[in-house]
Amino acid sequence: MATRIIHLPKYSRLSCLVKPLTISARTFATATASTNPPQFTTLSVDDRTGIATLTLNRPPANALNALFMGEIQRSITDLEKENCRGLILTSSSQRIFSAGLDLKECYKADVASLEGLWCALQNLWRTLFSTPLITVALINGHAIAGGCMLAVSSEYRIMLPNFKIGVNETMVGLAVPSWLMDTYINIMPSRRIAEWDLTSSRIYSSESALKAGLVDELASSKEEALQKSAAFIDSFSKRTLMARAITKQQFRAEILRNFEQNRQHDLDIYLSTMQKPSMQEFLGEYLQSLDAKK
Ligand SMILES: CCCCC/C=C/C(=O)SCCNC(=O)CCNC(=O)[C@H](O)C(C)(C)COP(=O)(O)OP(=O)(O)OC[C@H]1O[C@@H](n2cnc3c(N)ncnc32)[C@H](O)[C@@H]1OP(=O)(O)O
């Protein structure tokens, strides 16, 4: 699939709604990525429909490292400037949408790398959650932790059967960041279930995720899921894009404000947890258990 961005004059400008990110030392991962061509993503835009498809392609698990997250973030920002209408986020893998944060890069890493990783995660979440684009996660594989974060930050989730989805942070020894809690609560039918899920590291099957309201639809194939994704984006075709985007932004504004206020604290919690010898020991064992499955 060709990697290209096409100018779409037919759709009204949404980019004026996007506040520029404050570039600080901690956003270096994105800044670095922006000078390089994409390595781990493929972006295609259908200029007839105004729908972009961003395909995650970092084998074997689409584990999120700083470069990869910077690339996804930059693609979203580019699409906003190009006046795209909707974005479908999917995976090139037939098994894994994303296995979350790259745990191999969290193991025995120095502080600067850990900081780069977490800031890239924060920046990616902020960009995806706040984008005026109509966003759909086409979950064609397992979506664990950071993978689930990508799904719940999108507006609509369509999943293929027989995969797993959920946030297992407390199981891997990490507290769920408050911005992810808020994002999860934003889509779950009940706050009580959300609290239960996140404290217990509940992982759903595709089928039970549909019943619980964590995903919106199932599709039997990627082709069907693509059609359903386009149909969701098209369902807004008779609405003014700008009015829709402002309304979305208003719904999400408080969560974003809370995030900005707690951003440093959130980073500090992650850094202090990751640097604990007991956490590193656990991580080493966890990574071994993933390898031992072979
Ligand atoms: C919540 C968001 C905000 C909070 C911060 C975010 C934190 C996180 O995201 S922590 C990450 C937590 N993720 C996990 O615990 C997932 C661990 N992985 C799995 O459970 C499984 O791999 C799977 C269900 C995603 C897929 O299972 P399967 O199809 O059986 O594939 P393998 O287990 O054989 O994995 C293939 C390959 O990928 C490597 N890998 C898997 N997960 C990760 C990871 N998170 N980071 C780095 N690498 C990962 C795995 O080691 C295998 O590698 P190879 O041995 O080189 O093939």
UniProtKB/TrEMBL annotation:
Superkingdom assignment: Eukaryota
GO BP: any one term: fatty acid beta-oxidation
One Gene Ontology term of the molecular function aspect: delta(3)-delta(2)-enoyl-CoA isomerase activity
Catalytic activities: (3Z)-dodecenoyl-CoA = (2E)-dodecenoyl-CoA; (3Z)-octenoyl-CoA = (2E)-octenoyl-CoA; (3Z)-decenoyl-CoA = (2E)-decenoyl-CoA; (2E)-tetradecenoyl-CoA = (3Z)-tetradecenoyl-CoA
Pathway(s) this gene product operates in, as recorded in its UniProt entry: Lipid metabolism; fatty acid beta-oxidation
GO cellular component annotations of the record: mitochondrial matrix
UniProt cross-references to CDD domains, sorted A to Z: crotonase-like
Subcellular location: Mitochondrion matrix
SUPFAM superfamilies per record: ClpP/crotonase (SSF52096)
Stored InterPro entries: ClpP/crotonase-like_dom_sf (IPR029045), Enoyl-CoA_hydra/iso (IPR001753)
Keyword vocabulary terms for this entry: Acetylation, Fatty acid metabolism, Isomerase, Lipid metabolism, Mitochondrion, Transit peptide
Keyword set includes rRNA-binding: no
Any Pfam family hit: ECH_1
Oligomer and partners: Homotrimer.
PANTHER family listed in its UniProt record: ENOYL-COA DELTA ISOMERASE 1, MITOCHONDRIAL (PTHR11941:SF45), ENOYL-COA HYDRATASE-RELATED (PTHR11941)
Function: Key enzyme of fatty acid beta-oxidation. Able to isomerize both 3-cis (3Z) and 3-trans (3E) double bonds into the 2-trans (2E) form in a range of enoyl-CoA species, with a preference for (3Z)-enoyl-CoAs over (3E)-enoyl-CoAs. The catalytic efficiency of this enzyme is not affected by the fatty acyl chain length.
Full protein name: Enoyl-CoA delta isomerase 1, mitochondrial
Species annotation: Ceratitis capitata
Gene designation: ECI1
